[in-house]
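Board notes (copied after class):
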Amino acid sequence: MKPELSTEEQSKDRFFAELAEVSKEMVEAHGKDFAMGALVLAARWIAEGKFGKAEENIH
């Protein structure tokens, strides 16, 4: 019997499922190196408090 997940755990599971799908699509379209680089860059933006300011960082 599986324990019931809390609302927060269910939300996190949905995000992990979405990340998995996006990651799969990126690998299929552009390869593993691109997908890993994009995810690392996103993590860096989050760590540096820059997420949401991607337009400024790209140019």
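Comment from the instructor: The first helix runs from residue 7 to 30. The two ends are 52 Å apart (CA to CA).
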